[in-house]
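Internal tracking record. Fields below are filled automatically when a chain is submitted to the structure queue. Please do not edit lines marked as system-generated. If the sequence contains nonstandard residues, flag them in the REMARKS field before resubmitting.
Queue: standard
Priority: normal
Entity type: single polypeptide chain
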Amino acid sequence: MGTALERSESEVDLTLKAASYEMPAWHVDGMDVEAVEHATRRATEMIRGGEGPVFLEARTYRFRAHSMYDPDLYRDKQEIARWRERDPIDTFAARLRDAGELDDAALEALEDAVAAEIDDATQFARAGTREPIEDLARFVHTEVRA
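SYSTEM-GENERATED OUTPUT FOLLOWS
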């Protein structure tokens, strides 16, 4: 759950590791909404263009602990506060505001629409049927056809 790459990997640059498998690989600042969009478009075009798999690493920062049972004692509060200044939603909203493409009313309407969509999806999921236990590992591995 909390093992640093430096403690588990011989090569901590995951894009170099992926490139060793002879596939295009690059990283993107996962805290920059527009950079992520550009990088994912590029990767999608390559894949759809028949150039094979692509490894795209979005480098982000997790603001919260892994779970409610994680006391999050391995990071100091100032580190988290510094990263919060780069919150991708806040920084993107600020960019849109500065460009005159978003105001407080539009942002509130967008947040309300997203909350409603999440509520609808949650209700849909709760109303659904449970997956049979014997099917939980289905499609995890290639199924051999006779």
